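Hi team, as promised in this morning's meeting, here are the two structures we talked about. I've kept the exact order from the run log so nobody has to guess. The first one is mostly here for context; it's the second one we should focus on when we meet again. Sequence first, then the predicted structure tokens.
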Amino acid sequence: MMKLFNLTLVFVLLLSSCSTAQQKTDKTIDFEHAQFIDVRTPSEFKNGTFENAKNIPLSELKERLDEVSKDQQTVVFCRSGSRSSRAIQLLKNAGYENIINGVNSRQLQSLKEKQQP
């Protein structure tokens, strides 16, 4: 019985962590003026990214905060939304306020197309 409970608990925790990473934002992205930060590795970045995105891997973000303007809307993304969620927390702790989790480049492209007239 305890084994079943533990297995159920692990399953619920996994589902909730995945849904958190995939959350959609209620903020509108200013595609004209926002800065887009791809927090994936350089090799992932080389395989394609969202237009005008800057590659700052999550592992380097804390040391490279001077490359991220606090005066612009900041949209961070990765492959699944997990690393970008961690990047958002790091940015918030550093005093950034206008931050959006774009989840991934496919999601960003879809949102951009929906916003275009």
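And here is the second protein, the one for discussion:
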Amino acid sequence: MTRSSPVAVALGVLGVVFIIVAALYALGVLQIATSSTSGPHYKHAILFAVLAVASFVAANFARPKTAA
């Protein structure tokens, strides 16, 4: 399997997007896929934070390594 720099960049950008969405859920601004419209949704915020961490870990594995 070849390692690709564009894939690593894309996963990093996706991680940043997940962080932004998590912050919006934690602040109660974003109400996507929720039945109620009041207050922050911390479970959704935690889910997106975990997805952000997973994206950053995947980006680390996808980036090209330099030979030492």
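Starting points for discussion:
Residues 5-62 form one domain.
The chain has a mean pLDDT of 84.
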